[in-house]
Design brief:
- The complex is a heterodimer of chains A (113) and B (112).
- Chain A has 113 residues and is an all-beta fold.
- Chain A has no helices and eleven strands.
- Chain A has strands spanning 4-7, 10-13, 19-25, 31-38, 42-51, 54-57, 65-66, 76-78, 87-94, 103-104, 108-112.
- By secondary structure, chain B is mainly β.
- Chain B is 0% helix and 56% strand.
- In chain B, the strands form two sheets. In chain B, strands 2, 4, 5, 9, 10 and 11 form a six-stranded mixed beta sheet that branches. In chain B, strands 1-3-8-7-6 form a five-stranded antiparallel beta sheet, with no helix packed on it.
- In chain B, strand 4 (32-38) and strand 5 (45-50) form a beta hairpin.
- Chain B is globular, with a radius of gyration of 14 Å.
- Classes of the chains: A mainly beta (113), B mainly beta (112).
- The interface between A and B is medium-sized, with 26 and 21 residues.
Chain lengths: 113, 112
């Protein structure tokens, strides 16, 4: 089954403790992206990657890092999480930079206390 | 001002009603228009996409784009309780990597 898999689904952590949210897709998509979803603000792009070793900032990149060492994986790293990073996070992938639509993961609900 | 405006609702309708969901946008460079559906505790899934003004039908769903008014709509005919979800409009403009912008989403509840 074609899918984007994120882990973990739920995470509660403390301020300053480094964490990684993993994302993997099995569709051989070149384009991958991370979004956060907050009430009233919709989905906002954090980082995106157009291919292996090619990443760039989205609209809200502060406090986040990403890497793209393999085509299928695109982890999101929070080096020092803060409470304002409490949010619902989605990884997404696309064959043609979004024109054909994105496939989203099921989401990771992160709470930073 | 946000690039894409969408009324968050919630919108509550009886089963069988025709539902109209709308978004307005400010950037005339947007070229591709999409609607995503998001069920609770799930990621968004693509419902429809179009790149031209006019209507596009898919079963009970019709997507309408009016580029001159910078306005897009999604119509749902014969709405069902299973249509209860949040509907997100999304738009793409070419900026080297095709930047995708989402509306905030409209929550729809269809009650039996």
């Amino acid at each position: 089954e074609a899918q984007v898999t994120q882990n973990p689904r739920y995470l509660i952590t403390v301020t300053g403790k480094k964490l990684t949210v993993t994302c993997s897709q099995n569709m051989n998509h070149e384009y991958m992206s991370w979004y956060r979803q907050d009430p009233g603000l919709g989905l906002r792009q954090i980082y995106y990657s157009m291919n292996v070793e090619v990443t760039d900032k989205g609209d809200v990149p502060e406090g986040y890092k990403v890497s793209r060492k393999e085509k299928r994986n695109f982890p999101l790293i929070l080096e020092s999480p803060s409470p304002n990073q409490t949010s619902l996070y989605f990884c997404a992938s696309s064959l043609d930079r979004g024109i054909d639509g994105y496939t989203f993961g099921s989401g990771t609900r992160l709470t930073v206390v | 001002q946000k690039e894409v405006e969408q009324d968050p609702g919630p919108l509550s309708v009886p089963e069988g009603a025709i539902v109209s969901l709308n978004c307005t946008y400010s950037n005339s460079a947007f070229q591709y228009f999409m609607w995503y559906r998001q069920y609770s505790r799930k990621g968004p899934e693509l419902l429809m996409y179009t790149y031209s003004s006019g209507n596009k039908e898919d079963g009970r769903f019709t997507a309408q784009v009016d580029k001159s008014s910078k306005y897009i709509s999604l119509f749902i005919r014969d709405s069902q309780p299973s249509d209860s979800a949040t509907y997100l409009c999304a738009m793409i403009y070419r900026s080297g990597y095709n930047k995708l912008i989402f509306g905030a989403g409209t929550r729809l509840a269809v009650h039996p």
